[in-house]
Amino acid sequence: MENGTIRLPHACALYIAAILGSGVLFLSGSTADAAGPASLIAWAGVIALSFPLAYAFAALSRMYPDAGGAATFVKMAFGPKLGGLIGWCYFFCATAGQMIVSLTGAYYVSSSMGWGRTGMLLVALLTLVIAGTVNVQGVKISGRLSLLLSSLLLALLLAVIVLTLPRLDISRFAPFAPHGVASVGTAATMILWSFFGWEAICSLSHQFYKPERTIVRSTVISAAVIGVLFLALSVVTIGTGTYGDDERNLSPVGIMMQESLGVGAQIGTGFLALIICLGTCNAFVASLGQLGYALARDGVFPRLFVRLHPRKGTPVLAIASVVMLAAVGVTFTVILSIPFDKLLLIPNSLGLTVYIISMAAGVKLFNRLTLPWWSSLLSLLLCLCLLPFFGRSLLAPAAMAAAYLLFVRSSRQRPSVRA
Hints:
By secondary structure, the chain is mostly helical. 74% of the residues lie in helices and 0% in strands. The protein is built from 16 helices and no strands. The chain is globular.
């Protein structure tokens, strides 16, 4: 969209497309498999976390409307070095995430059509290419497309919940915690994937119409809608036993539609899932293109990313890099037959790092004892509680920090080398 023209409906659509996206299509099955009915506790906990977290990001965006998003907030609080690191963590976290998003839609449609792994790979790659092409044309197309896709997603989820409710079996909620209490924490680390996105739209906040009102309103509305839908979908997934093997864990929405209306409904759901995942890719690629540009502008990313499309004014090279990196990851994932839900902990650990440092920035930047300050502090404490459940995947942020420092050091040496 043109500067200052993302209004409330488009803002809500961008949030919903970014957050509901692929996670809502498979995580209700994967988390139920990990923790059984006790996964509902994990869902409720992360949904509760999303409100102060979303509000804190909205308030930060209102205070610092910039394409750098979370990287800008951290830079203002702790300086450019840490801000650049958070920018890197988020850029590569969300880029890796687009592998999972594109593979989710591709799995839904290829499994319903019997296309196999080759078909899944081609569909996933096509999803990435379309998202990149749309965003090169400008954020105006992205906002309108997200509004349409969010509406389709809401319609699909409501249909699944309503059609599946009559088949709920209360006995399936016992035993409540078959894998122990610790499994709730494991499920929570997986669910965190579904709530990445509040920070994604921060990179577009400078293009909101009347951001002082639109950002907070769209955040609160989206958080309420998303929370209700996630919890309801998890209840019907557990109540119908739609989990326990790879197919049900990775496509519970499609399976429930098939069992409610037949194979034809599963095929239709597969194609709708593909369209929805395209919407998620579209929203994130828009955000990542802006972030790549902002990081290059600030000197902590390759300078070539500041180049804009000569006519559209979009960060075409940043967008292309997101698509290419995700495409390489998708190709290796399919060739090596890695279930995409097993990839979650790596981008999630990077994302949690972004959340923790961003919320610490909020605690420093906001006036003490105000609502944004309390929201930042509460979010920081809740995010820290999740750290012990990530284990060795916390090596990913450490590796990212090492790569970032190496880049910064080598960049500083370039002028003397040329001389």
